[in-house]
Amino acid sequence: MDDSTTEPSGVREDDPEQDDATEQRVEDRRERQQEAAAEAAASLGRPGRPLNRQSPFFVGFVGAIGVLFAWGLLHVVTQLSSVLLLIVVALFLALGLDPVVQWLQARGLRRGYAAAVVFLGVILVFVGIIALVVPPVVNEAGQLLDQAPDFVDNLLKNHTLRDLDKQYGLITRVQEELRKRATDQSLWTSVFGGVLGAGKAVVGGLFSAFTVLVLTLYFTASLPTVKASVYRMVPRSRRQRVSFLSEEISRRVGGYFLGQIAVATLNGIFSYIMMTIVGIPYAAVLAVSVGVLGLIPMVGATLGAVLVLIVALFQSGTAALIVAVYYVIYQQVENYVLSPRIMQRTVAVPGAVTVVAALAGGTLLGIVGALMAIPVAAGLLLLYQEVLLPRQQQT
């Protein structure tokens, strides 16, 4: 049997003529391209010297473009400030709810179900507060309207007011002024405009609250995915460090919100017990008000105590004295016992930094800024301790 292999007819391993033909075609194509480029250059003129990037015209032109771009970006941010504020508030709320979601995840719930349970709990709390506060307010407003004629009669029967009316015609002047105002069309126009403005503000507030709720639900359910997407934008060499610092900041923010809510809730519960024992009216409404005001850093608890004290003054001097003594003692217990124990694992911010942060946040964004100022300060303090100081020690 012949071991030699036969090649197919017409095909050979090495064909010098075929290789030469291929090289010739490539060379012809290159020459045609060079001729076309030469013709195009001749028709467009000879290229000039490169642009001098150091010339005053170039520097000024690029600087003007940069200024216009910065101004346009600032204008866009200003126009979207309300939307950005809603996004920031929702993100902070999601960070505050994240520890609870993680706690439920550790008990076997999936992330989506845990976020839904927490969100449902938040909605039930708000509905409960509204159901607790609104009916007494509506009831008292109705009683005030029903008793308004009696108040007017008692006011007209007042001896001091009668004497002033005899000497200066006070009641007559008031009646004439009211009649004149009632017939003035500008008054009704302004009243109608004020009602429309108030209705518009209420609708806008409800829409903003609904937007924050939806964004909070989305951020709470997809917070790990959002974090992972942001971390991928960081270079691989620094990703682990950035991830560690970001997670620590998130932990401090969430712990601060949960701790602040716990402290404010305890304040409201103990206030309700005290007001029930003393016999101060509207104890439930006042307790809810004290708890909500307690969320405001530094001054919230004091404002709640002043509110309860004012209501107690209308009841009796003894009740007001008991309220004052109670809140003086409770503030000391809260500042030196409750708050340190609750906040010891969450936020460690010096007192001076807390005051400055709360004042700056309140000045920039009002109550919302004051609420977010302390966790932001805690995050910045962490970056100062973990990033800036080590670099300064190395240089």
Integer average pLDDT: 76
> What is the helical fraction, as a range of percent?
over 70%
Radius of gyration: 37 Å
Count of DSSP H/I helices: 12
Note the main sheet.
none
Please report the total strand number as a whole number: 0
Computed structural class: mainly alpha
Shape: elongated
Strand content: under 5%
Note poorly predicted spans. Answer: 1-13
Order of helices and strands: HHHHHHHHHHHH
End-to-end separation: 83 Å
Architecture overview:
The protein has helices spanning 16-44, 56-79, 81-106, 111-156, 159-168, 170-183, 185-232, 236-278, 283-293, 300-315, 317-343, 351-394. The protein is mostly helical. The chain has a domain at 80-187 and 199-233. α3 packs across α4 (111-156), α3 packs across α8 (236-278) and α10 packs antiparallel against α11 (317-343). The chain is elongated, with a radius of gyration of 37 Å. Mean pLDDT is 76; it is low at 1-13.
Task: List key phrases describing it.
395 residues; 0% strand; 12 helices; single chain
Please provide a brief summary of the model.
The chain has 395 residues and is mostly helical.
Topology:
Blueprint: H1 16-44, H2 56-79, H3 81-106, H4 111-156, H5 159-168, H6 170-183, H7 185-232, H8 236-278, H9 283-293, H10 300-315, H11 317-343, H12 351-394
Helix pairs in contact: 3-4, 3-7, 3-8, 4-7, 8-9, 8-11, 8-12, 9-10, 10-11
